Amino acid sequence: MQQRWPERLWIIRHGESSGNVAREAADAAGLGRIDIEERDVDVPLSALGEEQAQALGDWFAEMPEDQRPEVVLTSPYVRARKTAEIVQAGGGLHVDVADFLIDERLREKEFGVLDRLTRRGIEQEFPDQAEFRRLLGKFYHRPPAGESWCDVILRLRSALDTISLHHCGRRVVIVSHQVVVLCLRYLLENMTEEQILAIDREGDVANCSVTEYGFNPDIGKIGGMELRRYNFVAPLREAGAPVTAEPDENVAAR
Fold first, then answer.
1. Would you state the pLDDT for residue 251?
2. Distance, CA of 95 to CA of 80 (rounded, Å)
3. Model-level pTM?
4. pLDDT tens digits, residue range 69-83?
5. Closest CA to 163 of 246, 106, 90
6. Where are the alpha helices (DSSP H) in the chain?
7. CA 211 to each of CA 124, 172, 208: distance values in angstroms, whole numbers, following the listed order
8. 107-122 pLDDT per residue, tens
9. Which of 9, 6, 52, 85 minimizes the C-alpha distance to 246?
10. pLDDT (average), residues 210-226
11. Distance, CA of 203 to CA of 69 (rounded, Å)
12. Spatial separation of the C-alpha atoms in residues 15 and 32, rounded to whole Å
């Protein structure tokens, strides 16, 4: 039977962003709102985030040429696209920036009316939503004008179908966001709500960390993707780039 999955798949969370830094500052100061001027889609990498992406690019560049990624899909958000561009500039990708596939289905989870609020801000401004989230859990809670994890998973099912259709047998890298990394694990490993939330509780997905899968023909009847690494940050440590794992600036994701 024809292989229906990539030969290898790397899923990368973007480098540290200025929004991550602003969220941490707001939490430390006990503020309700995060000080960000840009739209979430336009939030750039921090200087440290650029350094992390450079370290990751060096790691990919050290791979044998016939093992490096040959297809790049990225969220349209600036921090994800810039991470991919810096990795490409480091020589680790066999793909021109002009050939990157920008896919809006890989975008950050949308937070609706809770956008730019810290947990304290949500409790102060939208106590009903804080209670709904407590009752429903983050997997099913959908803030007004926003998304639940299930909504993100729905669009990612479509994205995986596209990858299977157009990039089976190839080496694919995805650059995206924390919730997307977790929801892709949920799909690729056929998890339950309890299983993926248990992984989430263990700690945040680190900036510029690598989650890697390889195709295994012995999984199921037609083969499947086998987890090789999760939240892998050795490339950053080896290059001396600090490892950061702040939640994305919209802390409602947590």
1. 39
2. 16
3. 0.94
4. 999 999 999 999 999
5. 106
6. 18-29, 47-61, 78-89, 119-125, 127-136, 149-167, 178-188, 193-202, 234-239
7. 36, 12, 10
8. 999 999 999 999 999 9
9. 52
10. 94
11. 27
12. 25
